[in-house]
Specification:
Blueprint: H1 2-21, E1 24-30, E2 36-40, E3 43-44, E4 52-58, E5 64-69, E6 77-80, E7 87-95, E8 101-110, E9 141-145, E10 154-166, E11 169-177, E12 180-188, E13 197-209, E14 216-220, H2 252-263, H3 268-280, H4 286-293, H5 299-310, H6 329-340
Parallel strand pairs: 1-7
Antiparallel strand pairs: 1-4, 2-3, 2-5, 5-6, 7-8, 9-14, 10-13, 11-12
Helix pairs in contact: 2-3, 3-5, 4-5, 5-6
């Protein structure tokens, strides 16, 4: 019984530790090359203004994001966000038709996909990459000359791990979490009141030895020329060249599954709630918006979703096509007035 309680406690600690380690990453970039500083929940993420900033290790699902532009003539942005933990989210800083800066989500990926120096997130064929080219790390050239009788340099690394246990039973749990090793030693009494002791010792010794006799060693750092910075480009759907309102839209298969889920709801209000959940972190095409509008029974609901989806639509230059889903011309007029305010 004592063994089970001890093991349960160890597993509870492990589960709690894993939950505490869950975070999200945020990737912000401007579509016009404007440099900015990113602040998340009061924490400044980049010392120098840049066109693309990666914020890692975010533990709050609803952080307050502040974007301060290097150009003092551009007002700073302060927006609350919602980013469920365990993912990497990409957000584009762009300008709407009114000339105002807005934040538009462009996609999500697994954690560790993006790095501050260069993005590595794959994109489907037909889409341009919005990320700047990677800048090579500064190189250092070392020239060595050793005269007669010289001795080569040598480096040795010694790692010693040692563990010992006396009395009772020892349970050893080893885990690897995000590249970090966890070693736990759990002492279990033998049930006879002997107590005992448990000891786990890890020793790491690193030794570097450099010896030069009768020779000359010269080290000369060489700084390479800075790599050219390529301005980020906006994703564009194949065959479309108009204005872009949101990033990469859902694939045909993903949209078919989403529409089927919405149709499976019994009530209009529930369908709208699910449609909003789907659009929260995804982008639509105009045809996909029109397809979801066809699921709703009431004109008011169709109009509500058309307004909601406008800022989440990739090919907003084709948005006039959603007018075909309305029954009354008054709905078309109201949607047009709404779009003019964006």
């Amino acid at each position: 019984m004592k063994h089970l309680l001890t093991l349960s406690a160890a597993l509870f600690f492990t589960t709690t530790f894993l939950a505490a380690q869950q975070t999200s990453d945020l990737v912000f970039f401007t579509d016009d090359g404007t440099k900015f500083t990113l602040v998340v929940d009061g924490d400044v993420k980049n010392e120098e203004p840049a066109t693309r900033v990666v914020a890692t290790g975010i533990r709050n699902e609803s952080p307050v994001v502040i974007v301060r532009f290097a150009d003092a003539g551009i007002p700073q942005m302060r927006k609350p966000g919602y980013f469920p933990l365990g993912k990497e989210y990409t957000v584009m800083i762009t300008t709407n038709k009114k000339g105002e800066r807005v934040l538009r989500p462009t996609g999500e990926a697994e954690l560790g996909t993006a790095k501050p120096e260069a993005p590595v997130k794959p994109r489907p064929e037909g889409f341009a990459d919005d990320r700047p080219a990677a800048s090579p790390a500064p190189a250092t050239t070392v020239e060595q000359s050793v005269g007669v009788g010289g001795v080569e340099q040598s480096t040795s690394v010694t790692v010693v791990e040692q563990s010992g246990t006396t009395g009772g039973e020892n349970i050893q749990i080893n885990m690897g979490i995000n590249g970090m090793g966890i070693n736990m030693g759990v002492r279990v009494d033998d049930g006879m009141g002997m107590g005992g002791s448990s000891t786990t010792t890890t020793t790491t010794t690193r030794t570097t030895t450099t010896t030069t006799t009768g020779g000359t060693v010269t080290t000369a750092p060489v700084t390479p020329a800075p790599a050219p910075v390529r301005e980020p480009e906006v994703y564009r759907m194949p065959g479309y060249s108009g204005p872009v309102g949101c990033g990469m839209p859902m694939s045909g298969t993903e949209f078919a599954d989403a529409r089927k889920s919405i149709e499976g709801q019994s009530f209009e209000e529930t369908r709208m709630t699910l449609a909003r959940q789907i659009g929260r972190d995804r982008c639509f095409t105009t045809d996909q918006v029109k397809g979801i509008m066809g699921v709703f029974s009431f004109e008011d609901t169709k109009l509500e979703f058309a307004k909601y989806a406008y800022d989440r639509t990739h090919d907003i230059g084709n948005y006039y096509k959603v007018n075909e889903a309305f029954t009354f011309s008054s709905s078309v007029d109201e949607l047009n007035k709404y779009i003019q305010t964006r």
